[in-house]
Amino acid sequence: MRATANPVLRFDRVSKAFQGQIVLNELTLEMQQGEFLTLLGPSGCGKTTSLNLVAGLLRPDAGTIFLRGKPVDSLPPRRRGLGLVFQSWALFPHMNVFDNIGFGLKIRSAPSTEIRKRVGEMLDLVRLPGVGEKFPSQLSGGMQQRVALARALVTRPDLLLLDEPLSNLDAALRKEMQIELRRIHSQLRVSTLLVTHSQEEALMMSDRIAVMRSGIIECIDTPQRVYNQPPTRFVCTFVGEANTFKCRVDEVAHGEAKLSCGALKIVVGARPGIVAGQTVVAAIRPENVVLAAAGAGSGSNDAVIVDAVFKGNNISYSAVVGSEMLNVVTPPPADGCTLAKGDKVLLSFPKSKVILLEAGGVDA
Amino acid sequence: MPRPAPQAMSLALLVPILLLLIFFFLFPLAYLLYLSSLAQQPTLQNPLPELSSINYLKILQDSFYLSMSLNSTLVGLSTTFLTIAIAYPVAFYITRISGWERTLVSVACLLPIFVNVIVGILGWYILLLPFGIVQQALAGLGIVSGPLQLLRTFPALVAVLVYEHLPFAVLILVSSLQAIPTDKINAARVLGASVPRIVLSLIIPLTMPGLVACVILVFSLSASSYLAPILIGGQRTPVLPLAIFSYGTELHNWPLAAALSFVLLVLVVAISYGFSAAMNRIAKLGQWEFV
């Protein structure tokens, strides 16, 4: 991305191993001032390790981490000027909400009037006015989460680290907190690094997403580009759902490439490097497959519905073309007549919606 | 047949311990109280002597018994303080290590439990004898010359009691320290807290239940210990258990022995309760949530 003069955080070929197991492999990453960056990946991909390295709770085996342009490898966590919200929130159970939030200020020997003022501001920011006297155990999960956020923000950190902060909340509350986090981020413009395994959370909240796997960043880009133009098969299937096919390139002509996978035919826009006879992986997201009644158009694939699942705001079909099984998601039809098992349909794939992945690029 | 209510079921689980306590604790205790308020030892000729408070008056008016009570309290308090002062850092260290190192240190700490108490105390007796190993070592280093009175001193008694109770304190404190989630410590580190700050404002308050348990256990056991005072302390440091034993078995004055037992019981309960109440207040116990 744009090489700005002052990234708030920079990883320079950072490696970390635990008992011989490589967790981070020469990770390089740059995060801009005010940015909301998400490290997204399955468990064990190294995202939490990266966060702990930034916080100073772990030391890198090799490479350097820079905060505000300065290497921080020799700085203890308390000198790094960070805010951190843990998955468990880690509130202090023997202190009330006021003392929890004021902890970071008290350590810095701030005068008590200042502490009172700033804790009050934080409680307003996270919309919890008047709970200062309560103890964490008297608060709901959502409220504890807000207190943890306030405690991390009260010292005005240069960088806010969020370690799966929403995964202990139920679905409704999680949605609410996602919106809250976005609001607080846009209000304070504090650079925020979020670690999550939830692609929905990442897509919804981030300015940029770094998709991680096995200690490396597979892809780093805006949510739209990560979702619509994933560079690898892993990113494509980890972020959102996708039907993937190993196809043969049959013909490249007139700016189009014709692919086939058994009985399945796909047409994509030609691009450099695609030549006839080659094997490529094509992917299409379930909501981008166009489904039509049998006998309605050419260039399509004849398919048979094998399963239909009604999900309220959409219908999810499984369809087969030859030996290939596809997932298709459509809005419920206006006439209420949904297709049923055994129905014959036509499937087509809009050229611009087909994602072309490297030939044999990444394993399944 | 209707199923018994869950509440009744869980109460039923208490029955064995309740029976045990009633027959082997409450009943003897009541009998002891009765015994302590008899004017004289029951005999065949006079199996039911009159009730009186003479034994308690005797204790309260005699400075010998009062200094004995004070000794018992001081021995208990010094032992408790030293035991915790030694056990806390050790327990902290044990929670920070792992693997064979941890096994080694833990076993070393617990080893005294596996040795019979009398054997352990006699070991100390030999070490502390005049011209014994401790003195020889100190003399060899040129620190002391001439005979050294170690046995029959207050510090020796406290040292042996600390040795005896240290493993229990370490055990309790390790589990208590272990229960502190690492996240909470890390949260404090990132918020800017230094190590002493973390210990004072986080670790000690969060281990307060364990500390209170330690204090109650070590204080009550050491204040009422008999073996170490008889073998190490002797009559130079007279404590209540020594007097209770001699009145009960040598002088056959059971009523006075019973009254002394009650004084010791009240001392131990009052100090333990007072301490835990004060700590609960300070640490706002009862409002915590433990993860």
How would you describe this structure to a colleague?
The complex is a heterodimer of chains A (364) and B (291). By secondary structure, chain A is α+β, with helices and mostly antiparallel strands. Chain A is built from 8 helices and 20 strands. In chain A, the strands form 4 sheets. A 6-stranded mixed beta sheet of chain A has the order 6-7-8-3-9-10, with helices on both faces. In chain A, strands 13-12-11-14-20 form a 5-stranded antiparallel beta sheet. In chain A, a hairpin with a 2-residue loop joins strand 4 and strand 5. The C terminus of chain A is likely disordered. Chain B is mostly helical. Chain B has a single domain, classed as MetI-like (MetI-like fold). Chain B is 75% helix and 0% strand. Chain B is built from 14 helices and no strands. In chain B, helix 4 runs parallel beside helix 8 and helix 4 packs antiparallel against helix 11. The radius of gyration of chain B is 24 Å and the shape is globular. At the A-B interface, strand 6 and helix 2 of A face helix 9 and helix 10 of B.
Largest sheet of chain A: 6 strands, mixed
Spatial order of the strands forming the largest sheet of chain A: 6-7-8-3-9-10
Q: Which structural class should the secondary elements of chain B be placed in?
A: mainly alpha
User: How many DSSP H or I helices of chain A?
Assistant: 8
Order of helices and strands of chain B: HHHHHHHHHHHHHH
Globally, the shape of chain B reads globular
Instruction: Report the radius of gyration of chain A as a whole number of Å.
Output: 25 Å
* Oligomeric state: heterodimer
Reported for the largest beta sheet of chain B, the result is: none
Largest interface: A-B, 30 and 25 residues
N→C terminal distance of chain B: 41 Å
CATH topology of chain B: MetI-like fold
Helical residue percent band of chain A:
10-25%
Q: Could you name the ranges of chain B where pLDDT drops below 50 across 5 or more consecutive residues? A: 286-291
